[in-house]
Amino acid sequence: QECLDYQMNDSNFCKMICMKRTLCRKYKLAMNGITKSGKAFDRLDEVAPAHLKTQWSARERRAQSSRLNDPEAMDEYEINIKKAPSRKEIELRLLEESSAISQVCGDMDINGVGNRRGSDCIAHRGPKNGKKIY
Predict the structure, then answer these.
(1) Report field, pTM of the whole predicted structure over 0.70
(2) 10-30, pLDDT tens digit by residue?
(3) I want to staple 118 with a disulfide (CB 3.0 to 4.6 A). Which of 65, 71, 76, 101 is the partner?
(4) SS (H, E, C) 56-86
């Protein structure tokens, strides 16, 4: 029991000694982050149109004044970002576009020869006016 108490006390002592260094480092990082955030906000504030600033301020006041009675009023601060398509969705879309091009090119009969490759069809120039056939 004494050995366990000694190890726990030693561990807690080491944590307290290292805590000062860790807290100082985190404080410096936080202060640096505040400075960067302030600069970014100032740049945004310079380029934002006045009518949008007024609208944003009104929405903020409305959310802050009704937050006690209606917590859903704080949804004003939610970030609404459209989710980017996944890799599989992009691949599927590209395959569908590719098959649509292949079908169009396969149906075309250029110089009496059926062309089944989409890249050849797109790159082919018409014999009469020299424009690309899409």
Answers:
(1) no
(2) 788 878 888 888 889 999 999
(3) 101
(4) HHHHHHHHHHCCCCCHHHHHHHCCCCCCCCC
- Cβ contact 100:87 at 8 Å: no
To the nearest 10°, report the CA torsion of 59, 63, 65, 68: 170
HSE (CB half, 13 Å, CA atoms) of 43?
A: 6
Q: How far apart are CA 116 and CA 103, in angstroms?
A: 8
Q: pLDDT tens digit string along 87-132?
A: 999 999 998 888 877 666 665 555 445 444 444 454 444 454 455 4
CA distance 92 to 100: 12
HEC letters along the chain: CHHHHHHHHHHHHHHHHHHHHHHHHHHHHHHHHHHHHHHHHHHHHHHCCHHHHHHHHHHHHHHHHCCCCCHHHHHHHCCCCCCCCCHHHHHHHHHHHHHHHHHHHHHCEECCEECCCHHHHHHCECCCCCCECC
